[in-house]
Design brief:
Elements lengths: L2 H31 L3 H6 L12 H13 L8 E7 L10 H7 L15 H9 L2 H4 L6 H4 E6 L4 E8 L2 E9 L3 E6 L6 H13 L9 H4 L1 E7 L14 E13 L11 E7 L8
Helix pairs in contact: 4-5
């Protein structure tokens, strides 16, 4: 036996009692932390491995969770419709707006434009407003928006501070959609934008381009059982932008990223 073997054996003989004692203490402590089988099965003893709750309480939590119908993010229904009914005589739009008072300055639109002029501008929208031959919900893949956004300003009083409410912000909605080979959704958005700023620089009437967008949560159609009582958000909005990406490296479906913003948050358009 070599010198190194003798040294190793000597050290091992000296450490063996210490290691045995430490191992025995660790084992005893671990056994003491484990409740008896009968106590565990009774369901009233807290178990560390289960977050400190008893078996009976764990069963209650699981049953409550399993019975809850959670809302799924992939189940939603998007409805996009014109604010102006298609059966509304466009000859009357001019007089309707002419009689409406301007909330900002108290002037009537009729004092700035004649009824005939407003009716002519409105009639230019007829071909575009009636043009929609696709199901928007069929193409929608993602919807992102914040239904409530309150603007606050921090006010300082000496060394203290408090939050001062400034008002409610307009809702901005981002919808990602697919499109068909004919570009139906791209054409639809382009025509809607043309109603806002017409050829010749004429600014369109809001009644011709505003949209009513409704997002129903938890259902994929609005005529199935339970959909009538589902949570939904509905806003009167106008188109803002559309964006798409094309790439020859990816053989996938084209996606359109549309942005809409709320027209206002104080009138109740119906």
């Amino acid at each position: 036996m070599s010198l190194f073997d003798n040294i190793a054996n000597s050290i091992g003989q000296q450490l063996s009692p210490v290691v045995s004692a430490v191992g025995a203490n660790l084992l005893a402590g671990a056994i003491a932390d484990i409740p008896s089988i009968s106590n565990v099965l009774s369901g009233q003893t807290p178990i560390k491995l289960m977050g400190g709750v008893s078996l009976a309480r764990a069963k209650q939590i699981f049953s409550k969770s399993a019975a809850t119908e959670y809302s799924r993010k992939n189940l939603f229904f998007v409805s996009v419709a014109n604010v102006t009914p298609l059966n509304l005589p466009f000859e009357s739009i001019g007089s309707l707006i002419g009689d409406a008072k301007d909330l900002a300055g108290g002037f009537s639109a009729g004092s700035l434009f004649s009824t005939d002029t407003l009716a002519n501008v409105a009639s230019m929208a007829v071909p575009f407003l009636n043009w929609q031959n696709f199901d928007f919900n069929l193409f929608a893949t993602e919807v992102s928006y914040s239904p409530v956004q309150l603007n606050h300003t921090t006010q300082h009083i000496g060394g203290a501070a408090f939050s001062n409410l400034d008002g409610r912000e307009l809702v901005e909605m981002r919808i990602t959609t697919l499109d068909d080979e004919s570009g139906s959704l791209k054409n639809w958005f382009r025509k809607k934008a043309a109603l806002m700023v017409m050829p010749g620089g004429i600014v369109g009437l809001p009644i011709t381009y505003l949209l009513r967008i409704r997002v129903t949560h938890g259902f994929i159609e609005d005529d199935v059982a339970g959909a009538s009582s589902a949570y939904y958000d509905e806003f009167v909005m106008k188109p803002v932008s559309i964006e798409t990406d094309l790439s020859r490296r990816d053989d996938g479906l084209q996606e359109l990223h549309m942005t809409f913003t709320q027209f206002d948050n104080f009138t109740q358009l119906t």
